[in-house]
Amino acid sequence: MTDQFVFTPLDEIEKIYNELKVTFASGKSRPIPYRRYQLIQLAYMLKDNIKLFEDTLAADLGRPQLEARMLDIDPSLVEIKSTLSSFEKWAKQESAPFSINFSAMRPVIRKEPKGVVLIISPFNYPLFLTIPLMASAIAAGNAVIIKPSENTPATTTLLANLAEKYLDTSLIRVIKGGVTETTKLLEYTWGHILYTGGGKIGKLIAAAGAKTLSPVSLELGGKSPVFIDSKCDLKMAAKRLLWGKAANAGQTCVAPDYVIVQQDFQDKFVEALQQSYREFYPDKASAPGQMSRLVSQQAFNRVNNLLKNTNGTIVIGGDTDEGTKYIGPTVVKDVKPEDCLMSEEIFGPILPIMPVNSIDEGLAYVNAHDHPLSVYVFSQDSAYKANIFDNTQSGSAMANETIIHPAVYGLPFGGTGPSGSGYHTGKYGFDMFTHLRSSLDSPGWLDMLLGFRYPPYTTAKIKAMGRFMNPSLPARPKGPPEEHLLLWPEA
């Protein structure tokens, strides 16, 4: 299918980095027509080899064909096409907002590439969390080094081989490797570093970036809660939730991690999930082409141990096969806050249900823990949704849907606090890899207005500066707004 997975030698990494620095400094990556050419090449690199990528995703992750297309391949093509349609507009120089004081200086914002950028991508979506980001970096005019996951050797090897065939290797390179190779890469200074993965490694990436003063963006995941309104569209909620948890065997950074539901509605919701499970898997979930596998033996052992040690009640699934790294879609009810399933991001196809006595109790639990990458709500009640969204913090806030929002055109994708920093997809990815460089061109005659800035400083010049610089302010308020005092009288 692909060549053997061989790590990039450490001495070659330094040569590659230096070559890309020299090429970027030459200006080769900057012209808009060349950026467009490379983007089109990137698109055909994927489109010409869809079957090969389907095969490697199946080899690495046991990925069903439909999931390979829907979750990795097709949205990557859509992202490249969207970038192609808009990046010239994004790259145009902008005029600063009008100011009577400074308009004569013609202040503008130049959109410039940051340099050689590093993208460290994860195993769970080895295309969608790699190729669109390559597109953003190329569109912004950068040179790019990609370090895909060593846990998806077939896909990483194919990506590296095709990049050499389709793309300009003096500007775009794929590094194959693991911890040692990544550590070597982090010794260098980068225009920008984007890391997608877990928080533990994210801290190391951020610390390494700080040592070289390289800007860093992190997409880190977390335990994304799902609030279930007892009056929701029950069938829809059960189907979308079970699919969002089972897709890619739960190995999705925005996967619904656990459910919060009122105690007296738990059993009814479980029945709806059981019905959806029967509809999804009329034979069995482990049947060929129906369910992805855990990426590695280590991942299987970790998730399987969580399943073995839970004190909740398994009401769906629970079937495993160590030999194939298979864990079936599993629902566990009556999970307590101190249960092992609540101790870490599950990153597997296990869905704990934590019953609560009130939604306020559920909100208190969520807010006592790290801000997640997503908060999900299933409800038809606007007030219910607003209550959840207004009283939580998360990277995204989604109603009546799961996991597809990173592919929704025009929405930023990113976390907040422990779930990450920075945004990408579409223009947000372009902006991440773009330096906004302030510029102006001040005419000589302006010294007739700004001559007060030159010594010797006098009282007359101070008065002239005041006439030019001091802004007028709105009237002084008599106190906080009345509507604010109704909610916070202590203000």
From TrEMBL:
Residue intervals of the Aldehyde dehydrogenase domain: 12-437
Any GO CC annotation of this UniProt entry: cytoplasm
Assigned keywords, A-Z: NAD, Oxidoreductase
Full protein name: Aldehyde dehydrogenase
Record Pfam families: Aldedh (PF00171)
An example Gene Ontology molecular-function term: aldehyde dehydrogenase (NAD+) activity
PROSITE patterns: ALDEHYDE_DEHYDR_CYS, ALDEHYDE_DEHYDR_GLU
Catalytic residues (UniProt): 219, 253
Family: Belongs to the aldehyde dehydrogenase family.
Single Gene Ontology BP annotation: aldehyde metabolic process
